[in-house]
């Protein structure tokens, strides 16, 4: 019985180390996604009826539209954004653009894109927000220029 006692302690120790390692790995695992994936999972088949874009850090301009063509024009530059989850994003010191997407009287999805390449999203139905970092060669000016039209 004594010789098996050491073996049991070694096996239990290895299992504990494996469990801690697995939990640490899963907690730090980043997820790749895109704006389109986040939006479609938030909409769940609902139709976008209007959007509001607000600029922070500049002239503080606001665009609100219910026009299908204008909504498509606003969402088009966002569709190019590829993202990875970020634990602690760096806030922008200069510019950020907040986009709110509505379906009827319900606010469905909100996204804040900063000029430093960080993104915060909020799904109102789930009451949950996430932080991301842009991973592709997205040009912040492409959404900032929407205010010029």
In summary, what is this structure?
By secondary structure, the protein is α+β, with helices and mostly antiparallel strands.
SSE pattern? HEHEEHEEEEEH
Helix/strand class: alpha+beta
Beta-strand segment tally: 8
Strand content: 25-35%
What percentage of residues falls in helices of 4 or more residues?
A: 25-40%
Low confidence ranges: none
Read across the widest sheet, the strand sequence of neighbours is 1-4-8-7-6-5-2-3
N/C terminus separation? 82 Å
Notes on the structure:
The protein is an alpha+beta fold and 149 residues long. The protein has helices spanning 2-28, 35-43, 68-78, 140-144, and strands spanning 32-34, 50-56, 62-65, 82-85, 96-103, 106-114, 118-123, 128-134. It has an eight-stranded antiparallel beta sheet. β7 and β8 form a beta hairpin. It starts with a helix and ends in a 5-residue tail after the last helix. The mean pLDDT is 85. The chain crosses the membrane at residues 7-25. Keywords: Membrane, Transmembrane, Transmembrane helix. This is DUF4309 domain-containing protein.
């Amino acid at each position: 019985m004594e010789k098996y006692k050491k073996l049991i302690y070694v096996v239990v120790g290895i299992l504990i180390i494996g469990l801690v390692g697995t939990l640490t790995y899963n907690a730090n695992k980043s997820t790749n996604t895109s704006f389109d994936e986040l939006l479609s999972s938030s909409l769940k088949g609902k139709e976008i009826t209007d959007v509001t874009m607000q600029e922070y850090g500049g002239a503080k301009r606001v665009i609100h539209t219910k026009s299908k063509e204008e909504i498509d024009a606003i969402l088009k530059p966002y569709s190019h954004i590829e993202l990875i989850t970020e634990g602690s994003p760096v806030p922008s010191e200069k510019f950020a653009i907040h986009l709110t997407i509505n379906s009827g009287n319900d606010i469905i999805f909100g996204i804040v894109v900063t000029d430093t390449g960080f993104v915060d999203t909020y799904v109102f139905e789930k009451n949950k927000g996430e932080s991301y970092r842009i991973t592709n060669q997205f040009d912040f000016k492409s959404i900032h220029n929407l205010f010029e039209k």
